Amino acid sequence: MAEVRLEGLRKSFGTIEILRNIDLTIDHGEFVVFVGPSGSGKSTLLRMIGGLEPISGGRLLIDNELVNDIDTADRNLGMVFQSYALYPHMTVKENLAFPLRMARAPKAEIATKIAKTASLLQIDHLLDRKPRQLSGGQRQRVAIGRAIMREPKVFLFDEPLSNLDTELRVQMRVQIAKLHEQLGNTMIYVTHDQVEAMTMADKIVILKDGNIEQVGSPHDLYHYPASRFVAGFIGSPKMNFLAGKVEAAHQHGLDVRLEAGSTISVPVQPDQGLIGKPVTVGIRPDDFSSTPGLQGISIALDVDFVEHFGSVTYIYGLAGDETVVARAPKSGSRKDAGKLTLTAAPADCHVFMSNGKSVLRLQAPATWS
Amino acid sequence: MRFNRSTPASLFLNALVVACTLILTFPLVWIVMMSLKQQAEVMTWPPRFVFTPTFENFRVLFDAAQAGATSYGTIKVDFLTPVTNSLVISLGAVLVSLIAGVPAGYVLARRDLPMKEDIAFFILGFRFAPVLLVVIPLFSVFQTVGLYDTYFGMIWVYQVVTLPMIVWLSRSYIEDIPKDIEEAAAMDGAKPYRVVWHIVLPLLKPGLIGASLLIFLLAWHNFALGLILSSTKAPVTVALLKLLNPGVQFYPVMAAGLVVTMIVPIVLIILGQRHLERGLTFGAVK
Q: Residue A268's domain is classified under what CATH number?
């Protein structure tokens, strides 16, 4: 258990700035996920916390202790690598024992802990094998086991599931989440997969071009994205963005006229300054409905592609000259979907200013919790 | 996969293989045969392939006390000393190169240094120059500082041959070890020197054994350095040359010397080969 605090953390390679002024506090026992597109600096940030990458500026504190210049070996962290990074010349047992051997722990303690960890991760039967004799999922469990052995203050995960196949990835996701419940350690997890971020995190940190774009719970990020970038990054399929112009501001929100046709009154912070300005309205594919008569905006869609997932079906098409994805109605067929009228409730819409920032939503969306 | 070849084609290919084998082994077989013959038998024409082998030539090589009296003339050889010299110098050179070269290779593989590639190229540069280029100026230097004809001086100067190879080979072997593994060890609480000791060196072992065998051969077969910079500490290659006496040529004794010179590395390679495990790093990542 530990608190990790980043104060104005910076990283540059020569003149190229990788990370700029990162301020972030990770609380005791929190499961924090860094997400972002490739090149956003998320892995670099994790490696800086781990001491694998020197810090160019700012302060890194673990439990209020400045660790900028403390060796990786002395930070008491555990890390699981994307490549697993098991020691190929050692058996699973020796791999697990290594962190404690480095700490010069007594043999009896090492044996007890190996037994405990192995049963926790169900790798008891693999102890005498070499890494090359293990499958990908087994290697991943051994790598996690090795990180647990030393009971580190903080666990670092660097895209640990990206080498696994889909089914195994779902299993391991659940296992890591359970592990966090059992151990209660602070965990920092890097991924580019927003599904992993949404399902596992207590707190998500979205990075873009070396800056923190937004920090918040999965719920906050999904329903109150701070910017168009976050809104587009979180959620699958991506949020639809429709160009429009603010016509009026009143106490219930903004009236926006969409280029695609209709005008809607969106319940967001009514800012008089926005009147006459171009904005973008965001609607998630799942928030569309094709039930006729529903109050809200309606968009006419020229359907050109249909994607079946089994449980849901998404329709791709053009509204005006913008591509729109919408969840298909429960019933109907492609034939009568040639030209479809979609409606969405104003409360489900987001409004983004031309600089990409979002206008604060006034109505809290209904959720299951 | 199975290939079906016509009988003439496969006969032809097999004949080629046999021809290659004959061409390659002929000098070897010839020398071994020669080393087991008497002086008189060596010179007969046509050569005889069936004869009574004798170990007389090997006795002459090593029996310094009796050496004066052989069945076919007078020859005084002490071959044991040069073999010992070569062993001491070559093994010493390999050992020193490992101690100095592996850390250098590690730094070149893993650390960011200014002008790193230039340094690496400079080290390799010694392999471009003919050894004589180094030897001639060194001759007077060695005589002045008292390194001439010492094991210490010989091992030192042999680094010209062995060190660049070890630096470059160990550098490329270390680059093949995924960096993640070392970072994982650091995460597990291992200080840099323990990372090297517990992780890097064990993974490097098969590669280093192979590289050591290779540079041992380079050192063992070196001739010019020993010829000019030593006399009593001369290696076996120089001793072989000295068997070429002015006057009577003891061909069978020379052949025996060659056989001995070949046997030492062969034995080492057979011993070392067992340690050359392949694909040890497989399974570490991905």
A: 2.40.50.140
